[in-house]
Design a protein that fits this description.
Elements (H helix, E strand, L loop, with lengths): L3 H19 L6 E6 L2 E6 L2 H4 L6 H13 L8 E6 L3 H9 L4 E6 L20 E3 L4 H17 L1
Parallel strand pairs: 3-4, 4-5
Antiparallel strand pairs: 1-2, 1-3
Helix pairs in contact: 1-5
């Protein structure tokens, strides 16, 4: 059973992904919720010409600035697609408590790394929330790219 709040925030993340799509960015959206504050972001790699500007990194930076904190221990991060290794590392470094993602990422998804990760920080992970919607958006984006 999927939690109503998880659905609510994943829908916001999907809206962020759609914003990115319209800007010709890979349509991945992210929402961080911490202490009642909601932070939204999408990929900006194309706009910034910066390989590190993934939705998760952008959201973590915005959240830290908004909350005036270097770590986000009471936060949940919602991402439309399973995070890559770089983003998973940033999520762990930010001490985020919970990760919720939509679609599994076969090539770059890195949550399986957590099976062997040893730390005093535990990240709770839930996948598959609005998975079909996230997957369809990605497929539509790359199909359109191939047709160009």
């Amino acid at each position: 059973m999927i939690d109503k709040l998880d659905l609510k925030y994943m829908k916001l993340a999907l809206n962020e992904a759609k914003k990115g799509y319209l800007l010709d960015e890979v349509p991945i959206g992210c929402v961080i919720v911490s202490s009642g504050v909601v932070i939204r972001a999408h990929n900006t790699k194309e706009k910034t010409k910066d390989a590190t500007c993934h939705a998760e990194i952008n959201a973590i930076k915005k959240a830290c600035k908004k909350l005036d904190a270097k770590v986000l221990p009471n936060a949940t991060i919602y991402v439309t697609v399973e995070p890559c290794l770089m983003c998973l590392g940033a999520i762990l470094q930010a001490r985020i408590t919970r990760l919720v993602y939509g679609a599994k990422e076969e090539k770059f998804g890195a949550t399986s790394v957590l099976d062997n990760y040893q730390s005093n920080h535990t990240l709770l992970v839930s996948g598959g929330v609005l998975e079909n919607e996230a997957k369809e958006l990605m497929q539509e984006f790359f199909k359109a790219k191939r047709l160009k």
